[in-house]
Amino acid sequence: MPLTTRAAVVESAGAPFTLSEVVLDDPAPHEAVVRLVAAGLCHTDLGVAGGGLPFPLPGVLGHEGAGVVEAVGAAVTGVAPGDHVVLSFTSCGHCRDCRGGHPAYCAAWLPLNLLGGRRADGSGTVSRDGALLGGHFFGQSSFAERALVDERSLVRVDPDVPLASIAPLGCGVQTGVGAVWNVLKPTAGATVVVLGAGAVGLSAVMAAALSPATTIVAVDRVAERLRLAKELGATHTVEAGRATLGEAVAEITGGRGADGVVETTGDTGVLRQGVDALAARGTLVVVGAPPFGSEVALDVNGLLGGKRVVGLTLGDSETQTFIPALVEMVKDGRLPLDRLIGRYAFADIDQAVRDMTAGRTVKPVLVF
């Protein structure tokens, strides 16, 4: 039978999150009901809530959930009631990229995760007072005490690891880590530059520190974030605005430039500086997302030295193998994710938003 639960609803673009009773649909064959224990707050949630993307509102957002499975649909085989799960993005499972181990590039990724607000068949997952709400956000809509979750969004994890400590793995952390491990793949002695020391950027710093790279440069405007980056493995820091990026990287690398750059800010001017700071055959990974339609001018001749600019979604991760590996690294202390997390009661979601926007908290995690 349909289940009533409490969710944080965004009523319209720019409106705050409002706690409200909603009704979840019965699980479809490939869905599960999950009792949320924690959910990370991500800039993507804020962008959609602010009207930056055409997601149907009123709606329920949230895409870094972690919780316990309570019930499963008739065709679910990967999890069972009682399993601890991290929730990540969903995908169709049968297009060429899904079959090839790259579900973040699913042919149906945008409508299934970010824009549609409905299941693939057009049916809704959450309603209020008989009216459908935007839901199925990243296959989960986890800003709720219970969520109806697509099977391909579910990743079973070690029950001995506290769920509040690993909720951000579903999006931000796997994106930063995947940028380094899955795309840059640093070789011995490489230089990695991370532009922006937020949750994604600091995750990239931690990933680089676990790679053969020997020079790891974090760049940000906030001195406190740079100090944290140092503690998490950065060998050098650059305070943006006080130094020109190209000159700073040239000085650090003896004039060679960066072998890899991870651009997390979404600022096209910063992206251009990052490309210019690359060494011959260097790669810049575009992670930060500016408004749709944004363009950046590049020096074409400057690219002829073998430079590459690569776009990235969600770390190009195959979640069923990648996320459990990250959980093990959190468990044994090699990925000190707790250094980024600030915990907030679910009812304090708007305070979490304010603290994140003001830069007081790197990664807010709502606790239910």
Characterize the structure shown.
By secondary structure, this protein is an alpha/beta fold. It contains eleven helices and 18 strands. The strands form three sheets. Strands 3, 5, 6, 9, 10, 17 and 18 form a seven-stranded mixed beta sheet that branches. β14, α8 and β15 form a beta-alpha-beta unit. The longest helix is centred in the middle third of the chain and has 13 residues, at 172-184. The mean pLDDT is 96.
**Most strands sheet:** 7 strands, mixed
Compute the number of helices. 11
- Give the overall form: globular
Relative strand content: 25-35%
Helix content: 25-40%
What is the CA-CA span between the terminal residues? 23 Å
Low-confidence stretches: none
Rg from C-alpha positions? 20 Å
DSSP strand tally? 18
Calculate the mean pLDDT score and round it. Answer: 96
